[in-house]
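Before relying on records like the one below, remember that each one covers exactly one chain. Contacts with other chains, cofactors or solvent are not represented anywhere in the record.
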Amino acid sequence: MAARITILGAGFGALSAVRALRHRDPRAEITLVSPRAELHYLPGIIWIPSGLRTREQLIVPLGPFFQRMGVRHVAAEVTGLQDGGRTVLTSAGALPNDALLIATGGRFIKKLPGIEHAITPCEGIAAAEQIRDRLRALQGGTIAVGFAANPQEPQAVRGGPMFEFLFGIDTQLRREGRRDRFELVFFNPSTEPGNRLGPATVRHLLAEMARRGIRTHLGHKMQRFEPGKVVTEGGEFAADLILFMPGMTGNAWFDQTDLPRSPGGLLQADEHCRVPGTEHVWVVGDSGSFPGPDWMPKQAHMADLQARAAAANLLAALAGRKPTARFKVELACIIDSLDQGTLVWRTPTRQRLLPPLRAMHWAKRAFEWNYLRPYR
């Protein structure tokens, strides 16, 4: 009898799991639950403010992909679990399964007072469009860009895109001949922002800010945002546009389950991507808290690696075998600035940083095309 496998989410980890599961088991009955049958390619939103990308270019309809993969899509919101994960509760009804893979991403912590005065870019395409429109309307002033972590889960942070927005906006304003009318300020509670990228990368990023004339406000805990103002324990400064990425925690619907949680609110996972204390419940990507080095990233590449391991282990467990697959821990990114890119690569034993190269900008664009090709 074919195994009934339910996948929650339609992001990078979920779709990588679909491909890995289908490759390993052509007969499995795969159901995927997400609000829409769409992949939103969020790494590309850094190019929306400049017009290099549009909404239409970054949304991929998944209907044809699901048809090719033999996947049943249920358009619904997840609301909880029952029967130890064997039943998924959704806005479209209850869905039974033999194994469950959770890949619903994370949720940004919006507790900082006045955070409604800031734009959180990685919330989606609409946020990047808002940045684009605000930039067009501004004739000058101060643009503040920053991020923070979940204090209970230092790994639950997504800082890389904020460097890209910062450098991309600087390049865009220079191209438009408007840079002299703006002050750019980068702020972060740490004195070493982006230290998960490695000490050499931090030094490079801070040096690049200095070279571009970007002011920094570092090492001061955030207090609040006000209209036109960023307030920290180390002082405040005016800002006509604030881009801020808070730390991440788990989805709200996790609270309606008995699944074990990490101190930061994510789903606890072991080295095989299994949720401890459960039978046939697995997690990948931003939804989970995984064992590994403190620099292990929350990024699409890591979700892909976890998804492949989880798929192998899920099928092994259903067949009565011991899960043995482990995911590779690897940080790989290109910090783009619209016309150049800085390659950062890190593993537990090696680290590499390449200086900004125009070729790396084009490599990032080529990667996007190649990554989306199987889903188009």
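The longest strand covers residues 141-147.
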